[in-house]
Design goal:
Blueprint lengths: L1 E5 L2 H18 L4 E4 L6 H14 L7 E4 L1 E3 L10 H8 L11 E2 L8 H14 L5 E4 L21 E4 L2 H7 L12 E4 L2 H5 L3 E6 L5 H9 L17 E6 L9 H10 L1 H4 L6
Helix pairs in contact: 1-2
Bound molecules: fructose -6-phosphate (F6R).
C-alpha cells in the first residue's frame, strides 16, 4: 500500500485526479471504476477541470460504478446513476453508453450481478478503481463480514451506513435497506485501487484498514492484499495512523510521486 497524506482534501483530490489523468492518457480504451458519496466529488471536479482546460479526453473511456441502492430508479434524486450523471458524466465527453452503474431495479438481481461481472471482464478488467470508505470500513457497499472473495451481489446495508447516508434522503426511513455492490473480490482484481478518505470521521476506519489485521470486520483491510493500492488522505483521516512519519518519508522520497506538480 502507498499512503499519501496531503494537507487537505482539495490537495489530495488534485493529486488523485492527476494519477487518473496520467493513466487515461496512457491507455486507449481505459476502464475506470467509480465511486459515489461526498468524498470523490472534489476529485471529479478536478477531472472536469482537466477535461475543459487541459484536453483530458474521455471519449474512449469506459466506466463501471461500484454500487447502487436496490429499488431506486435511475432518475431518483438519491440514485447513484443520477449522482454520477450530475457530478461527472454530464460535464465530460464520455459516451453515456460506456458508463455502467449496477441496476437497482433488475427483475433478476442475481442474473444482473453475474452479467455485471461478465461485462467488466469483457471490457478487459478495471484499470483504476476509485474508492471511498464507510465509517464502518465498507468499500463499495461491502459491509462488515463481507467475504474477501465476494463478487457483485445484493446485500443489506447496516444501520450505521443508512444513518451516514440519510443526508441524501428526506428521512432515514427513505434510505433503502438493500444495495447491489461489486464484491471485495471484484475490487481486488482492479489493476490499481485509489482510495480517498477525508475527515476525522474516517480516522478509525482508515487506521484499521491500513494498520489493523486483515479482518472482515473492516472490509477495507482487504486492500492490504491488493498489489497496487494507493490511499489519499487528509491530515484528519490520517490522524490515527501510527506510522504516519514513515508514510510521509516514503512519499517524499518517491520519484514517482515527486514527478507530480500537485505534490510541490
Ligand atoms: C459509494 C461507495 C461507498 C462510499 C462510502 C463513503 O459508491 O462505494 O463505499 O465511498 O460510503 O461515503 P462518503 O464519501 O459519502 O463518506
Amino acid at each position: 500500500m502507498e499512503i499519501m497524506i496531503l494537507p487537505d482534501a482539495q490537495r489530495a483530490s488534485e493529486l488523485c485526479a492527476a494519477v487518473i489523468d496520467r493513466a487515461i492518457r496512457a491507455k486507449p480504451g481505459f476502464v475506470l471504476g467509480l465511486a459515489t458519496g461526498s468524498t470523490p466529488v472534489p476529485m471529479y471536479r478536478e477531472l472536469i477541470r482537466r477535461h475543459r482546460e487541459e484536453g483530458l479526453d474521455f471519449s474512449r473511456v469506459r466506466s463501471f460504478n461500484l454500487d447502487e441502492y436496490l429499488g431506486l430508479a435511475p432518475d431518483h434524486p438519491a440514485s447513484y446513476r443520477r449522482f454520477m450523471n450530475e457530478q461527472l458524466f454530464d460535464h465530460i465527453n464520455i459516451d453515456p453508453a460506456n458508463t455502467r452503474v449496477p441496476d437497482g431495479l433488475a427483475a433478476d438481481i442475481d442474473a444482473a450481478c453475474a452479467q455485471y461481472e461478465a461485462d467488466i471482464r469483457a471490457a478487459g478488467g478495471v484499470d483504476v478503481q476509485v474508492l471511498g470508505i464507510g465509517s464502518d470500513g465498507h468499500i463499495g457497499f461491502n459491509e462488515p463480514a463481507s467475504s474477501f472473495a465476494s463478487r457483485t451481489r445484493s446485500l443489506t446495508l447496516t444501520r450505521q451506513t443508512r444513518q451516514d447516508n440519510a443526508r441524501f434522503f428526506a428521512s432515514l426511513d427513505d434510505v433503502p435497506h438493500g444495495c447491489v455492490t461489486m464484491g471485495i473480490g471484484t475490487i481486488l482484481e482492479s489493476r490499481t485501487a485509489v482510495m480517498l478518505a477525508f475527515g476525522a470521521g474516517k480516522a478509525d476506519a482508515i487506521a484499521g484498514a491500513i494498520e489493523g489485521p486483515l479482518c472482515a470486520m473492516n472490509p477495507a483491510s482487504a486492500l492490504q492484499l491488493h498489489p497496487d493500492a494507493r490511499i489519499f488522505l487528509d491530515e484528519a483521516a490520517a490522524s490515527k495512523l501510527k506510522l504516519k512519519d514513515y508514510y510521509n518519508e516514503v512519499f517524499a522520497r518517491s520519484p514517482y510521486w515527486q514527478s507530480f506538480k500537485e505534490v510541490k
